[in-house]
Amino acid sequence: MTDMEILKEIRTAFEREPRIHIHRNHIHMDFRGGTLVIEGEVGDIAAKQLALERAGDYALNGLEDRLRLIALGPVEDGALRVAVIDALSEEPTLKNCAIRAWAKGKEQTVRETQPESGGALYVLVEDGVVTLEGQVLSLSHKRLAGVLAWWAPGCRDVVNKLAVTPPEDDSDDEINDAVRLVLEKDHRLPADQIKISTKGRAVTLEGLVFREAEKTQAETDTWYVQGVGNVINQIELRR
Question: Is pTM, for the whole model, over 0.85?
Answer without folding.
Answer: yes
